[in-house]
Design brief:
By secondary structure, this protein is mostly helical. Helix content is 71%, strand content 1%.
Length: 288
């Protein structure tokens, strides 16, 4: 098929030149006939809520349409991976080396776990401020500052903090149930699923941020921070109630995660020799 396609192009190009020469056309006229027309991407037509008049669609900003949401998601993913995921192995090492027993002589288990999570938040926020500031400066120097959606920055920091608390408390609790690296490795991938799964649907969410898939996933608490920020970073207007509802769901889910994580951490941090099975996790969480 490829050979036939190549021969077809060569033969048709030669025939086209013969026909042009027979018609005594100038090359400039031929070029004008076959001039390529660029098609510019346009945004959606909107209606003014106050006047009811239809607003003309504006030219789509390709940078803001795809690159900005993608950068936002990657930055959030990097911050969580850098601050929350390592807590599993860090707590496991402190438990196995008896460091946790010494620390628990001065602080409560909840204070111990909270300190770990707050440390991760501090590192993440510092890194986020550096990267966001560098991005703004770069955008100004390159003349694309208009593509930066400044209005979503408060949403970004709030969702990122809650996401780190949610994942970090879970990782710290799971780390308290592990006795060695083998236990930690067996739990690490399942615990990372809320962070990883949104990456597989990021492209369809960017392409259709108001679709049923994007809307539904953005209201499921473990996926809300990543998916909702992706939707907010696109040029499409998202109804205000959706990020507010998503934020309320994330707050409630984070409180639940911290409560369950604290109970698991309190019980498991001093227990040696027991495997982190599902039954043990339920027993630590609800029976103490």
């Amino acid at each position: 098929d490829n050979i036939r396609y190549w021969f077809g192009n060569v033969i048709n190009e030669h025939l086209r030149k013969l026909r042009v020469s027979e018609l005594n056309l100038e090359q400039e006229e031929v070029n004008a006939l076959f001039r390529w027309i660029n098609i510019e991407g346009m945004g959606l037509v909107s209606v003014d809520r106050k006047t009811g008049e239809q607003q003309e669609a504006e030219a789509a900003n390709e940078l803001q349409s795809f690159l900005v949401p993608y950068i936002i998601v990657l930055l959030m993913f990097m911050l969580v991976m850098m601050s929350s995921i390592p807590l599993l192995s860090v707590v496991m090492e402190e438990k196995s080396e008896k460091i946790a027993e010494v620390l628990l002589g001065s602080v409560t288990p909840f204070q111990f776990m909270t300190g770990k999570v707050l440390g991760g938040i501090g590192v993440s926020l510092t890194t986020a401020v550096i990267y966001v500031s560098a991005g703004i400066v770069t955008a100004r120097l390159t003349g694309v500052e208009s593509s930066i959606p400044y209005e979503i920055l408060p949403w970004f920091f709030v969702y990122t903090i809650l996401f780190i608390i949610m994942v970090g408390s879970g990782m710290a609790a799971l780390g308290a149930t592990c006795n060695d690296n083998k236990d930690a490795q067996s739990l690490q991938f399942p615990a990372m699923l809320p962070v990883i799964i949104p990456l597989f649907v990021i492209v369809p969410v960017i392409q259709n941020p108001t679709g049923s898939l994007a809307t539904t996933l953005s209201l499921i608490p473990p996926f809300t921070p990543t998916i909702m920020m992706t939707r907010l970073a696109t040029p499409v207007t998202i109804p205000l109630w959706q990020p507010l509802a998503g934020l309320a769901g994330v707050v409630l889910f984070t409180i639940l995660t911290v409560w369950i994580g604290a109970r698991i951490f309190r019980t498991a941090i001093l227990i040696q020799g027991q495997k982190p099975t599902l039954s043990n996790l339920f027993r630590y969480a609800f029976r103490g």
